[in-house]
Amino acid sequence: MSDPQDPLSVEVHPGRPLVIVDVDEVLGLFMQGFGRFVAERGYELRVDRFALFQNLYRPGDTQSLDFNTGRALFDDFFRIGSEHMEPTPHAVDSLTRLAQNASIVVLTNAPGHARAPRARWLARHGIGFPLVINEGPKGAAVAQLSARTTGPSAFIDDLLPNLDSAAEAAPAVHRFQLVADERLRALAPAAPERHARIDDWRALATAIEAALGGGRR
Ligand SMILES: [Mg+2]
């Protein structure tokens, strides 16, 4: 049985370079969109540390929301709110540019119910590339995807645990960290000795083209 979300069944050209790319805080401005969504429901998202549920408050409170309330807002956002997220500046044109010479697979950690809204969001912005919904560290999926082409691969994510996991499971894959939200950039942990950190999409696309043009593998 072929599962359309499976890294082994999405379309990957067997000889071209491959770019594997995250959505939240990479292709799209997640914190901005989620912040707007929770504000419409009477809550606040304060971007004062690199966290998610611990940054949700009732206005005026100093204690963050309980986990279950935060989790419910998160689930609802992916069900009904994430389609209104703004793309990161220059993400769409840069990814379109990369797609001229590479296969693109979108690899996102999101609840299963986010699949259809997320696919619609990608399509609406003209980047309706194959979509894999993942859970947990992304290294295994990155390894499975990159093994499906003889060309070189690149992986872009905002979170170090996902990049570290890819480094372990698929060390030949070029890794890049991009943090889309300007407020988060100074707060986001980086490890430039392990993963190139480039927060501007146009500069990132140029670096990826250079990495993938080298004909590794
Ligand atoms: Mg992300």
Overview of the molecule:
This protein has helices at 30-39, 67-81, 91-98, 115-124, 139-146, 160-169, 182-185, 201-212; strands at residues 18-21, 44-45, 56-57, 103-109, 131-134, 153-157, 174-177, 196-197. Helix 6 (160-169) links the parallel strand 6 and strand 7 (174-177). The chain is built from eight helices and eight strands, in the order E-H-E-E-H-H-E-H-E-H-E-H-E-H-E-H. The strands form two sheets. It has a six-stranded parallel beta sheet, with helices on both faces. Strands 2-3 form a two-stranded antiparallel sheet. It starts with 17 loop residues before the first strand and ends in a 5-residue tail after the last helix. With 217 residues, the chain is α/β, with parallel strands linked by helices. The chain is 35% helix and 14% strand. The chain folds into two domains: 18-29 and 86-212, HAD superfamily/HAD-like (Rossmann fold, 3-Layer(aba) Sandwich), CATH 3.40.50.1000; 31-84, no CATH class. The structure holds magnesium ion. Magnesium ion is lined by residues 22, 24-26, 157-159.
Shape: globular
Kindly state the number of beta strands: 8
- H/E element order: EHEEHHEHEHEHEHEH
Radius of gyration: 17 Å
Strand composition percent: 5-15%
Secondary-structure blueprint of this entry?
Layout: E1 18-21, H1 30-39, E2 44-45, E3 56-57, H2 67-81, H3 91-98, E4 103-109, H4 115-124, E5 131-134, H5 139-146, E6 153-157, H6 160-169, E7 174-177, H7 182-185, E8 196-197, H8 201-212
Parallel strand pairs: 1-4, 1-6, 4-5, 6-7, 7-8
Antiparallel strand pairs: 2-3
The protein binds magnesium ion.
Magnesium ion binds next to loops.
